[in-house]
Amino acid sequence: TRSGFPEVVYAPGKTNEQIVSAFRMLQAADQNCLATRCETEQAEAILSEFPEAIHHPAARTVRIQRHFEQTGRVAVVTAGTSDRPVALEAIETLTWMNIQNDLFIDVGVAGPQRFLAVKDELADCDAVVVVAGMEGALPSMVAGWLSCPVVAVPTSVGYGASFSGVAALLSMLNSCASNVTVVNIDAGFKGGFVAGLIASNCHRASSD
Amino acid sequence: TRSGFPEVVYAPGKTNEQIVSAFRMLQAADQNCLATRCETEQAEAILSEFPEAIHHPAARTVRIQRHFEQTGRVAVVTAGTSDRPVALEAIETLTWMNIQNDLFIDVGVAGPQRFLAVKDELADCDAVVVVAGMEGALPSMVAGWLSCPVVAVPTSVGYGASFSGVAALLSMLNSCASNVTVVNIDAGFKGGFVAGLIASNCHRASSD
Amino acid sequence: TRSGFPEVVYAPGKTNEQIVSAFRMLQAADQNCLATRCETEQAEAILSEFPEAIHHPAARTVRIQRHFEQTGRVAVVTAGTSDRPVALEAIETLTWMNIQNDLFIDVGVAGPQRFLAVKDELADCDAVVVVAGMEGALPSMVAGWLSCPVVAVPTSVGYGASFSGVAALLSMLNSCASNVTVVNIDAGFKGGFVAGLIASNCHRASSD
Amino acid sequence: TRSGFPEVVYAPGKTNEQIVSAFRMLQAADQNCLATRCETEQAEAILSEFPEAIHHPAARTVRIQRHFEQTGRVAVVTAGTSDRPVALEAIETLTWMNIQNDLFIDVGVAGPQRFLAVKDELADCDAVVVVAGMEGALPSMVAGWLSCPVVAVPTSVGYGASFSGVAALLSMLNSCASNVTVVNIDAGFKGGFVAGLIASNCHRASSD
Amino acid sequence: TRSGFPEVVYAPGKTNEQIVSAFRMLQAADQNCLATRCETEQAEAILSEFPEAIHHPAARTVRIQRHFEQTGRVAVVTAGTSDRPVALEAIETLTWMNIQNDLFIDVGVAGPQRFLAVKDELADCDAVVVVAGMEGALPSMVAGWLSCPVVAVPTSVGYGASFSGVAALLSMLNSCASNVTVVNIDAGFKGGFVAGLIASNCHRASSD
Amino acid sequence: TRSGFPEVVYAPGKTNEQIVSAFRMLQAADQNCLATRCETEQAEAILSEFPEAIHHPAARTVRIQRHFEQTGRVAVVTAGTSDRPVALEAIETLTWMNIQNDLFIDVGVAGPQRFLAVKDELADCDAVVVVAGMEGALPSMVAGWLSCPVVAVPTSVGYGASFSGVAALLSMLNSCASNVTVVNIDAGFKGGFVAGLIASNCHRASSD
Amino acid sequence: TRSGFPEVVYAPGKTNEQIVSAFRMLQAADQNCLATRCETEQAEAILSEFPEAIHHPAARTVRIQRHFEQTGRVAVVTAGTSDRPVALEAIETLTWMNIQNDLFIDVGVAGPQRFLAVKDELADCDAVVVVAGMEGALPSMVAGWLSCPVVAVPTSVGYGASFSGVAALLSMLNSCASNVTVVNIDAGFKGGFVAGLIASNCHRASSD
Amino acid sequence: TRSGFPEVVYAPGKTNEQIVSAFRMLQAADQNCLATRCETEQAEAILSEFPEAIHHPAARTVRIQRHFEQTGRVAVVTAGTSDRPVALEAIETLTWMNIQNDLFIDVGVAGPQRFLAVKDELADCDAVVVVAGMEGALPSMVAGWLSCPVVAVPTSVGYGASFSGVAALLSMLNSCASNVTVVNIDAGFKGGFVAGLIASNCHRASSD
Ligand SMILES: Nc1ncnc2c1ncn2[C@@H]1O[C@H](COP(=O)(O)O)[C@@H](O)[C@H]1O
Ligand SMILES: Nc1ncnc2c1ncn2[C@@H]1O[C@H](COP(=O)(O)O)[C@@H](O)[C@H]1O
Ligand SMILES: Nc1ncnc2c1ncn2[C@@H]1O[C@H](COP(=O)(O)O)[C@@H](O)[C@H]1O
Ligand SMILES: Nc1ncnc2c1ncn2[C@@H]1O[C@H](COP(=O)(O)O)[C@@H](O)[C@H]1O
Ligand SMILES: [Mg+2]
Ligand SMILES: [Mg+2]
Ligand SMILES: [Mg+2]
Ligand SMILES: [Mg+2]
Ligand SMILES: [Mg+2]
Ligand SMILES: [Mg+2]
Ligand SMILES: [Mg+2]
Ligand SMILES: [Mg+2]
C-alpha cells in the first residue's frame, strides 16, 4: 500500500474463509501478515492453514513474519497491569512492521519512582506509545521528559466515571505536553502503527 | 454552625442588602466573614459599610478577619497560571478559617522538574489542595508523593475537549492514587474548606 | 508507603500468582494485606496459601489482619439496602487500616425519621463515608448535621436516568453542604481510604 | 380549552402585536390572561394597552386578573435564594389559575432545621411545587414528609458539574420518594400549572 | 405512611427473607402488599408463604390484595406493544392502590386513527399515565385532548439513538402541552403511583 | 453541479469579496444564486452590487432569481411560531430551486385540531419539510397521515432539557413513522434542499 | 396504508402468534409481507405456517413476496464488511417494496480507489442508501459524486469512541454535502424504506 | 527543552508583562519566539518592545523569527474556508519550528475533485496536518492516499449537532485509515507541533 505496509486484516465481522484468503494473497506477495481482534476460532482457522503463524491470545492477533531485519526503535509503556492486552496489540503491530520494540508495564503515575527508573531507556526512541486507562495521566508525565512524538492510547480499563475509556481519552486530548497525539480507545493497533510509521519514515529518510 | 465555622455568603442571586445584613449578623457574633463569587458592585456595597473588609477581585471574595491566630497547614498548588483565580478562592477561604496556608502556582505535569522543586515544602501539610484544568493530571502526580489527603479541584481552564472542566473532573475522579478526593469544577471555596476542616480537626484533636 | 499504609492489591487484570506474591511480600514486611475487587477464584488462590485470610464475598475483598489495635472513628452510612456491597468494601478497608468503624444501612432520604435516629451516633466521628445511588441526596442531608468531613461515594444502584451512578455522582459534586467531597462511582475502597486517612492523621497528630 | 384554563402566551419569538392581540381575545372572552418569559419591551407593549396588567419582572410574567375567588391550595418551596425567579413564575401561574398559593424561599437541604420549621404549613396542600438547582435534593426530602403529589422543578442555578440544571434534573428523576414527578429545567410555569390543575380538579370533584 | 399508602417493596438487592418479612408486617397491619422488580425466585419465595399472592411475571410484581373497593379512575395508555411490561407495572400499582384502572395498548403516534378511537374513553379520568419509548411523542398528543394531568413514563424500548429511553425522556420533558409531568425511564410503578395519588386525593377531597 | 443545482454560498467565515465574487460567477453562468446564514453586512455587500437580490433577514438568506418557472410541490410545516426562521431558510431554498412551495406555521402537536385543518393541503406534495423544536413530535404525527417522504428539521427552539435542539433531534431520529428522515439541527437549507431534490427528480423523471 | 405500502411487522416484543396473525391478514389482502428484527424462533413460527416465506438470518427479516414486477432503482453501499447485516435489512425492504436494488459492500473511505470503481454504477439511481459505522465518512464522499438523494444509515460497528454508532451518526448529520439525510443507528429498514419511497413516487409520478 | 524546541507562550490568563518577559528570555538565548491565542492587546504589548515581531491576527499568534534555514516538509490542508484560522496557527507554528510548510484551503470532502487536484503536492511530505470541522471526514479521505502520518485537527466550525467540534473529533478518532492521529478541537498549535516534530526528527536522523 501507499504507506509501504500491506493491509492488516481487522477480523470482527469476517468469515474464517475471508481472513485466510487475505493471508494467502499476502503470502503470495511475500509480505508479513497481521490479523487483529481475532476470536479463538478465527485464529485457529489461520493456524490450520499456516502453522508458522503466531497467535498471541492476549493481544488477540495472528501474525506471520517473513522478514526479520528491524529498523528504528519504539517503546510501548503502560500505566497498569490491566492495560497489557492493548499494549501487546501495539507490540505485535510493531514487530509485524519490522520496527525494534520494547514493552514497559505498570509504570503509572501513582508510583512516580517506577517511571523515573525507565525514563532513560526511552531517550533514544523514534516514538513512544503510552497506554493508560483510568485517569489517563501517564502520557502527560512521560511526554514532559521526551523529545520524540508520544502516541497516547486510552484504554477502557477502570470503572464508574472512567466511562469505558472516555475519562482517559479526554485527559490525553487535553494534555498540556505539546508532543502528545491521541488515537481511539483500546486502539493498540493504531497506536503501534502510527509510532511505527514515524520510526520507519525516519530511517527510510536517513538511509536515502 | 456545626462544623465550628460560621456560614459563608454565596453572593450570586443575592441583593447587596441581603449580603451586607448577613455580614452585620456575623460581625455582631464576633465571627470572621466571607462572601464568595462577588461581583464588583456587591463587593463595593460591603466595603462601604465595612471599610476593614478585604476585597480580592481575582478570587472574587470579600473577607473580614477578626481573628488572626492560625493553626494547621494547607498548601494550594496549581497546574497552570490560569488556575490562579480558583486557587485564590481556596486561599482566601483558608485564611478566613485561620488555617496557615501557602500557594504554589504553575507546577504542572508538563514541567516535571518544577514540581520536584516544591515537593518537600508540601511534606508537612495536613492536607493539600490541587487545582488543575485541561487534563487534570496534577493531583495524581502530587498524591503519589504525599501522605495526607489531597483535595482535587478541577477548573474550567482549557478549550475544545476540556468541555469546561469535565475532562479534568473525570481525570481526578479516576485517579489511581488512593488519597485523592474531588469537589465540583471551579469550586475553590469547597476545596479550601474541606482541606481546612481536615487541618482544623487534626489540631483540635491534638489540643484536646 | 508515604501515607503510612502499604499498597493495596487491585485484583482485576492480575494473575493469581501476581496477587499471592504481593501478599507474600506484605506478610514478610509484617503488614496487613488487602486485595479488592477479587473474583472467587482469585480469593481462593489467596486462601489456599494463607488460610488466615478473610474473604468477604459481598465486599469482594480478601484481607489478612496482623495488627488489631484501632484508633480514630469512621462511620459508613448507606441510603439503601442495595448500596451495601460498596459500603462493605469501605468497611473492610477501614478495618485493614486499623480504624474503628461502624456501618449504618438504609437510612435514606425518603425515610427521614430513620436518619434522625442515627444522627447522634455520628457526632464524634473523624469522618463519615456516605454511600448512595439513585438521586444521591443523602450526603447533602447528612453533612448538614455534622462537623467533620463527609466522603460521598456514589453507587451504580438505580435504573433509567440514574445512568449507572452518574445522577448520584453529579448530585454529590453539587452538594450545597461545604464539607462534602466525592470519589468515583462504586469506589468503596477509596471512600474508606480517604476517611481512614483523615482519622489516622488526626490521631497521629494528637499523639505526637 | 379542554383543561378549563385558557391558553397562556409563551412570549419568546412573538411580536408585540401577536402578544397583545392574544390578550385582546382573552379579554373579550372574560378570561384571566398570562404571558410568560416576557422581555421588558414585550411587557411594556401589553401595559400600554392594558394598564391593569401586572408585570412581574423577576418572574418575567404579565398577568391580567379578572376573577379573584380562589380554591385549592398549593405551596411553592425553593432550596435557595437564586431559585426565586423560577418559583415566582410558578406563583404567578397559580394566581392566574385562581389557586390559593404560598411561597417558601431558601429551605434547602443543607440547613435542615429551616425545612422542619415550615413542614407543618405544607401539610394541607393539594400539591407542592419544589424548586431547586445544584444537587436538586430538596424534593426527595420534602416528599418524604408529605401525602400529596410533589412537582419537582429543577433550575439552572449552580456552576461546574451542575451543567445548567442537568444534575438537579437527574437527581429529581431518580428520587426514591414515590410521590415526586418532574418537569423541564427552569419550567416554573409548568410546575405551577400541573400543581394547580391537581388542586383545581380535586375541588371541582369535591364541589360536583 | 404519610401518603395513606403503605411502603412498597423494591426487590432488587434484597434477600428473599427481607422481602417476605416485609410482607408479613404489612399483612399483620391488614394492608395491601406490593413488591416490584421481582425476579422469579423472589416471587416464588413470597408465593410459598402467601399462596393468595398474585405474581404478574410480565410486570415483575407480586401483590396481595386485601381490600377491593375501588375509587377514582386512571387510564394507562401505551404507544407500542413493547411498552406493555412497564404499563403493567403501573396497572398493578393502581390495583394495589384500589384505584379503578384501564389499559390501552398500542395507540401510538404513527397510527393516529387508533388514538382517536380511544380518546373518548379517557375523558373522565382523574389522571392518565402515558407510556412510550422511541420518540416519546404520545404524551404530547394525548395531553392536547385531555383536561387532567398526564404522567408520562418514558421506556427503554427502541434502538440506536433512543439511548435506552433518553430520547423519549427528553421528548416528554420538553412537551409543549402544559399538563404533562415526567417520571424516570421504565418507572411504571412511579407513573402509576403519582396518577393514583392524584385520583385518590380528588376522591378523598370529594368525600370529605 | 452534479445534482443539477449550482453551489450555494454558506456565508459564515467568508469575506464580502469572496461571497460577491461567487455570485458574479453564478450570474455569468445564468444561474439562480443563494447565500445562507448571511450577516447584515454580508447581505448589504451583495445588494450594493446586485440590487435585484432579495435579502430575507429572518431567513438570513440572499437570493437572486433568474428563472421563475416552478415544478413539483413541497410544503414546509412548523410546530411553533419560533421555528419560523428555520422554515423560511427552507422556503427560500425551495424558491431558489424553482420548486413550488407553501408555508404552514404553528400547527404543533399540542393543538391537534390545527394540524387536522391543514392535513388535506399536504396530500399532493412530493415531500414535506417538518420543522420543530422542543419535543420534536410533529414529524411523527404528520408522517402518519402522508404518503410522501417527510424531511424532519429539528430546531434549537426551547429551553432546559431541550439542549439546543438535541431533544427534538433524538425524537425525530426515533420516529416510529417509516417515512421520516432527519437533517441537522436548524438546517433549514438542507431540509429544503433534500425535499426540493426529491420533488425535482420526480418531475424530471415524469417529463423524461 | 397511506404510503401505498402495507404495514411492516417490527418483531421485538411481539408473540409468535401476533406476528403470524399479522402475516395472515396481509396475505388475505394479497400484499407482500415483511417482518424485521426477527429472532430465529419467530422466523420459524412464520415459516411453519407460510413455507414460501424467505428468512434472511443475517438481515433478521422474514419476507413473503406475492408481487415481483420492480420499478425504480436504489443502490445500497457499505463502508465495511461488518456493515453488511444492516445493508441487507435495507435490501430486503427494497425487494419487498418491489424496487430494483443492488448491493455494494466494502467501498469505504480508506480505500478510495474501490469507490471510484463503483461510482458509475450509482449514476442512474433514484436514491442511494449509504451504510457506514466507525467514522461514518462514506455518505459525504459518495454524495459529492451523485445527483440523487442519499439516505445515510449509521451503524453501531466500531469500538471505543465510536460509541455504538454515535460518531457515525454525528458525522452524517453534519455532512457538508447537501443531498444527505439521516436515519437512526442500524436502521436498515428505514434507510431502505425512505429510499424506496423516493424511487416509487418518482416512477408513480412518471407513469401518471 | 528536551524536544529541541523552546517553550511556547500560551497567552490566555497571562499578563502582558509575563508574556513580554518570556520573550525577553528567549531572545537572550537566541531562540525563535512564539505566543499563541493572543488577544490584540497582548500582541501590541509584544510589538511595542519587539518591533520585529510578526503578529498574525487571524492565527492569533505573535512570532519572532531569528533563524530562517528550513528543513523537512509539512502540508496543512483544510476542509473549508472557515477552518482557516486553526490552519494558520499550525502554519505559524511550523514556520517558528523552521519546517518548510504549505497551506491548502477548502479541499473538503464534498468537492472531491478539489482534493484530487492537490493530492500530488502532498506526496513528499514528512507529515500532513488535516484541519476540518463539521463531519470531519477529510483526514480519512486524505490519509488513504498518503504514506506519511496524518495529524487530524478537528475544529469547532459547524452548527447544531456538530457540538462545537465533537462530531469532527469523534469522526477522526474512528478513522479507518491507520495513519491518522488526533489532537484537541481547534488545536492548530499542537497539530502543527507534532507534525513539525516528526519532520524535524526525520531530518535530524537523516543528517546524523
Ligand atoms: N484493531 C484495529 N483497529 C482499527 N483499525 C484496524 C485494526 N486492525 C486493522 N485495522 C485497519 O482496518 C483495515 C482493514 O479493514 P477491513 O477492510 O475491514 O479489513 C486495515 O488496513 C487497517 O487499516
Ligand atoms: N477498589 C479500588 N479502587 C481504586 N483504587 C484501588 C482499589 N483497590 C486498590 N486500589 C489502588 O490501586 C493501587 C494498586 O494498583 P495496582 O498497581 O494496579 O495494583 C493501590 O495502592 C491502591 O491505591
Ligand atoms: N414558560 C412556559 N414554558 C413552557 N410552556 C409554556 C410557557 N408559557 C406558556 N406555555 C405553553 O405554551 C402554549 C402556547 O404556546 P404558543 O402557541 O407558542 O403561544 C401555552 O398554552 C402553554 O401551554
Ligand atoms: N445553511 C447551510 N447549512 C449547511 N450547508 C450549507 C448551508 N448553506 C450552504 N451549504 C452547503 O455548503 C456548500 C458550500 O460550502 P463552502 O465551500 O464553505 O462555501 C454548499 O454547496 C452547500 O452544500
Ligand atoms: Mg499498578
Ligand atoms: Mg505552565
Ligand atoms: Mg430503603
Ligand atoms: Mg440558602
Ligand atoms: Mg404499534
Ligand atoms: Mg403554538
Ligand atoms: Mg474494508
Ligand atoms: Mg467549501
Structural overview:
Eight copies of one chain form a homooctamer. By secondary structure, chain A is an alpha/beta fold. Chain A has two domains: 9-64; 71-207, 3-Layer(aba) Sandwich (Rossmann fold). Chain A is 38% helix and 20% strand. In chain A, strand 3 (54-56) and strand 4 form a beta hairpin. In chain A, helix 1 (16-28) crosses helix 2 (40-49). Chains F and H meet through loops of F and loops of H. One adenosine monophosphate sits between chains F (7-10, 36-37, 187, 189-190) and H (80-81, 106). Residues 80, 106, 108 of chain F line the site of one magnesium ion.
Give structural attributes.
Rossmann fold; 208 residues; binds magnesium ion; 5-stranded parallel β-sheet; alpha/beta; 2 domains
Largest sheet of chain A: 5 strands, parallel
**Structural class category of chain A:** alpha/beta
The CA-CA distance between the termini of chain A, in Å, is 20 Å
According to DSSP, the number of beta strands of chain A is 9
Number of helices of chain A: 7
Radius of gyration of chain A: 17 Å
Helix content of chain A: 25-40%
Topology:
8 copies of one chain form a homooctamer.
Chain A: E1 9-10, H1 16-28, E2 33-36, H2 40-49, E3 54-56, E4 61-64, E5 71-78, H3 84-96, E6 99-104, H4 112-119, E7 127-132, H5 138-143, E8 150-154, H6 166-173, E9 180-182, H7 188-207
Parallel strand pairs in A: 1-2, 5-6, 5-7, 7-8, 8-9
Antiparallel strand pairs in A: 2-4, 3-4
Bound molecules: adenosine monophosphate (4 copies) and magnesium ion (MG) (8 copies).
One magnesium ion binds at residues 80-81, 106, 108 of chain G.
